[in-house]
Structures are given as structure tokens and as C-alpha cells.
Fold this protein.
Amino acid sequence: MTMHASFSILNPPAHTERRSVLRQFIDAVIEGRRCKAAHELALYLEHHKHSLKDDVRIELQNRLRGR
């Protein structure tokens, strides 16, 4: 019988209720960058929607909404 165990820094065990201050800071920075990226993409689509192929534009809009 073989047993496999894995540990991921991004997915801590469920019993870990408290996150370190450093982890909270890193999460806040990453979330801020995600929001900025989504905002920049929305602006780009707004200004360049006619220069993109329809299927590309629709796919990008769907991904933005599904965020």
C-alpha cells in the first residue's frame, strides 16, 4: 500500500484558521493587482472593441464577468 502526501503553501490545511500577518499582506497585494488588471482590461476593451475579432472580444468580456 502506498500513501501519497502533498503540501501546498497556497492551500494550507483546513485546520489552520489564522493566517500570518505576512500571508495577509501578500494576499492583499495579489488581490490589488488582480483588480487593477481587470480594470485595465475593461478599459482596453472599451477603447479597442472595434479592432478585435468578435470571438476574441466576447471571450475576454466573458472572462471579465466570470471573475
